[in-house]
Amino acid sequence: MVHFVIQEMKPRGPWLTPFNIISIPVILTGLVILYFRFVYGLGSVTNLSQDTAWGLWLGFDVVTGVALAGGAYVITFVVYVMKVEKYHSIVRVTVLNGLLAYSFYAGALLLDIGRPWHAFNPYIGNSFGFSSVLFLICWHFLLYMVAEFIEFSPVVAEWLHWEKARRILKRLTLTTVILGITLSLLHQSGLGALFLMAKPKIHPLWWSEFLPILFFVSSIYAGLAMIIFEGTVSHKVFRDLIDPKSHHSFDDIIFGLAKGAAIGMFVYYFLKALLFIHDKQWTLISDGWGYWYLLEVIGFVLVPGFMFAFGFRNRSLKTIKVAAVMALLGVVLNRLNVSIISFNWYSQAHYYPSWQEIVVTLTVIFTEIWVFRWVVTRMPVFTSDHRAR
Amino acid sequence: MDRRGFIKTTLVAGTAALAGNQLCAQDTRQPEEFVGILVDTTRCIGCRACEIACGEVHDLMVPDVLNDGALEKHRDTSDKQWMVVNKFETEKGEVFVKKQCMHCYQAACATACPTEAMNQTMKGPVIWDGDKCIGCRFCMVSCPFGVPKFEYNEWNPKIQKCTMCFERLEVGQKPACVAACPTDTLMFGTRVQNLEIARHRIYSHPDQYVHQIYGEHEAGGTGYIYLSAVPFEQIGFRTDLGNTPYPEYTKEFLYGVPMVLFGVPALLLGLNALVGGSEEGSEGSFDFEAKGDGGER
User: Fold this and answer.
1) Residue of B110, B250, B286 with shortest CB distance to A193
2) CA distance B293 to chain A (A)
3) pLDDT for A327-362, tens place per residue?
4) Are A129 and B115 in contact (CB < 8 Å)?
5) What ipTM did this prediction achieve?
6) Domain boundaries of chain B, sorted by first residue
7) What is the DSSP string of chain B?
């Protein structure tokens, strides 16, 4: 057994791939930057200030990364609760993506918080901040990662040939799926609730008392668009790992996902429009912030929404893939607008991430991709066990 | 009690039961005992004796008030100074304004804190506990006055903000800045008393003051309250913060949590049973093709 695991730890495949050539130097630089961050403080590598307490690491890695990982709860809902078998073949890879995204992006919180050695305080002892949204999110991140791991564990058991464990773990799936969906619903919306008390600091076009609902609804289509995007890339990169039969069915899956994403985006757009009209924000769209807002809501929500619908009707994979990228950009734009760009919008001193912050963000993303690649080339993620061996 | 009220009360009770009555803790405090400081900006001469006292008592930066020319620019509090005095040119001449934590009656920072490191004491001052703090800076994001400051250049950073000299209050002393003030600009007392004094001054000198006490209602009411001769927006105060206590903004979301936590799994299990039909295997299976060979492979 130990021998088997050691064998599996060894790298496989060619070393000098374009991805390795780019990612290895970035990851090494990122580690050096993190050394400075932990020895000399956050100020030594970030552009954070007393006015801008949360920057790229929180606004992009955590708030945006978690939104983009929403695919796992949507797909597990469809497959296990609604029993739609069509999407069964992408469950494993989607759950793996969710698990890794949470481990790395929610894990990026540990880089951002000033006293990470106290990170377990919200979980232990007499310091439960029950009235805090962040307390809720801390717990949900941890519980959700456990739930995702249990959901994924049958694959690990299959890889290790633990037949008995696999059968036991399999039985836990529905329970953990339901727990996972509930937790997702709460922390996806919770990420929006983080900004509720920052009302006087966020531009009125982005602050709304309905931020939790907006964040939740947009996480649904963000997750679906991410599955389309990641699936497309995976089917190119890991072509030989994927069973030829599922190449064909994947196109069919994409059409289904596109339909779901289109509906999600129209609902989200409707909600946005309703809030805009209800709050009588007409006067706010005549300046730069207004145009920026319209670009996000029309250019990156309404337009890709129509493109998804069009692609579904006309069976055009290409339109759907472009729409997926645009929808993802729209979600990134929205999360960054709320958490960073329109934060302290009236202030003269604007926050721009330092190059170190960007490199560390890329380090987090690349490391995740390394782990993803390691897992899919060893464990039966794309294909079921009897075909893999 | 109307229906909305009933639902809210039920949810509060439910949440409180789940949350170990933390949410109710605020209601057990006695507003009469709530202490605060009255700042009468018409009396301040800008000597900055309070800044020196604050720095000395809390082992922070002690400014060289005679030579540093700090009044020439508008300063903010920092991780090295819990309070600053700023000078404003107004229609009624120079006005000096002390700036520090407002010690909200319902503090956004304390509500935001996931570990209760930022803690609202029973008597009012909001203080910080380094053993609990994880350094997430959610207090900084949430505070409507932008008060908590973070030591960005420390490996073991602290949150720095005014504590209203909580440890001095414990032994019956006044806050250091109040004790140092030579002109009675600063008055320490219960918030109720301070409000009465402030109102009395406005009534007896209606031409000297604008008829507003900043902090009486702002952000749900603050421990520090201010009197001024000129409108408050002219002396560096934000007047667009509203009178809602900031914790109210997240309260409704948090009340929804137990509903979702118990309601959604019930709904999902029900849905799952309704959809039914599928064979045993696919219910819990994590296999590739659930139908046919999927379940029992």
Assistant:
1) B250
2) 11
3) 999 999 999 999 999 999 988 888 999 999 999 999
4) yes
5) 0.90
6) 17-249
7) --HHHHHHHHHHHHHHHHTTT-TTGGGGS-GGG-EEEEEETTT-----HHHHHHHHHTT-----TTTS-GGGS-----SS-S-EEEEEEETTEEEEEEE----BTT-HHHHH-TTS-EEE-TTS-EEE-TTT-----HHHHH-TT---EE-TT-SS--EE---TTHHHHHTTPPPHHHHH-SSS-EEEEEHHHHHHHHHHHHHH-TTTS-S--BTSSGGG-BSEEEE-SS-GGGGT----S-SS-THHHHHHHHHHHHHHHHHHHHHHHHHHHHH--S-HHHHH---S--TTTTTT-
Q: Do B288 and A384 touch (CB under 8 A)?
A: yes
A48 contact B CB<8A: yes
How far is A262 from chain B, CA to nearest CA, in Å?
23
Q: What is the pTM of this model?
A: 0.89
Q: What is the pLDDT of residues A262-311, one digit of tens each?
A: 999 999 999 999 999 988 778 888 889 999 999 999 999 999 999 999 99
Q: Which of residues 116-175 of B touch A (CB under 8 A)?
A: 116-117, 131-138, 140-142, 144, 146, 149-157
- H helix intervals, A238-352: 244-278, 288-294, 303-313, 317-336
**Angstroms from A100 CA to nearest CA on chain B:** 18
**B289 with A81: Cβ contact below 8 A:** no
**Partner B contacted by A121 (CB < 8 A):** yes
In angstroms, the separation between the Cα of residue B129 and the nearest Cα of chain A is 10
| Domains delineated in chain A | 18-384 (1.20.1630.10)
B68 touches chain A (CB under 8 A): no
Query: What CATH architecture applies to the domain B17-249?
Result: 2-Layer Sandwich (3.30)
How far is Cα A366 from Cα A109, in angstroms, rounded to an integer?
17
